[in-house]
Design a protein that fits this description.
single chain; 243 residues; alpha+beta; 7 strands; 16% strand; elongated
């Protein structure tokens, strides 16, 4: 009875050690900081991703692709190429215009000027409206002239000094209000006038210089003749010298 109990005790002890050893050994070989390092690395990578994905959405980058510059459009110059075609080619923006369903606003009559060819031209600036033609009217003569939508000037034959000329913009809805001006007496061209004055002044100075040279030569020649005459009239003067 006393011999059996120590043997049994030894067996129970071995069984307990074999059961406890597998549960303890993994905890001894597994470093507790390994999982912590993996979490730290994953956190840094996520932060890097968030930075790279948010950077293209910064205001400076997105607005640079959205902003479009206005087209080189002058409402007072003849449009050789319509602004719509320039916008399609260059990607620029044309000025905002009221649609074709609205009556155009009045154009601005800029000047009425006598051309070098002798014809009187009317110059105007286009309104910010959809225009399909322009109508120029001689108010006193009750005469109407029609010009194309891309023109900004036109010759008005028969316009006399003191008469009033008007221009209006039109489309399918109707005509705009008119913009009028009176044809005044043509003023002399300032450039031509200045050039004429300068040329006249230079010519006058050249003429004075030429006259001065002529008078100086005549006076020199006269003095020389007078000297020769005095030498011939003096009896004491000979070719051999004085006596």
């Amino acid at each position: 009875m006393f011999l059996v109990s120590p043997v049994m005790s030894l067996l129970l002890l071995c069984v307990m050690e074999s059961v406890c050893t597998p549960s303890v050994s993994p905890s001894l070989h597994q470093p507790p900081l390994t999982r912590v390092r993996i979490i730290e690395v994953e956190d840094d990578y996520d932060e890097e991703i968030s930075k790279t994905t948010q950077s293209p959405q910064s205001p400076g980058v997105t607005t640079s692709h959205v902003i479009r510059r206005p087209c080189d459009y002058d409402p007072c110059a003849v449009q050789l190429t319509p602004c719509e075609k320039v916008s399609a080619q260059m990607g620029c923006l044309c000025p905002g215009l009221t649609g074709p369903e609205k009556r155009p606003k009045a154009p601005k009559l800029q000047e009425v000027k006598l051309d070098r060819s002798g014809e009187v031209f009317v110059h105007w600036c286009a309104p910010r409206s959809t225009v399909t033609y322009y109508e120029v009217t001689l108010k006193d003569a009750n005469k109407q002239l029609v010009f194309g939508e891309y023109l900004r000037n036109g010759a008005v034959p028969g316009l006399k000094v003191g008469e009033t000329v008007c221009v209006a913009a039109g489309n399918a809805v109707g005509l705009s209000e008119t913009s009028c001006a009176r044809y005044e007496q043509p003023q002399p061209d300032q450039v031509a006038l200045s050039t004429g004055i300068i040329a006249g002044s230079v010519g006058f100075l050249l003429l004075l210089s030429a006259l001065a040279v002529i008078l100086w030569r005549r006076r020199t020649c006269r003095k020389g003749r007078m000297g020769d005459a005095e030498g011939l009239g003096n009896p004491s003067y000979t070719s051999d010298g004085a006596h």
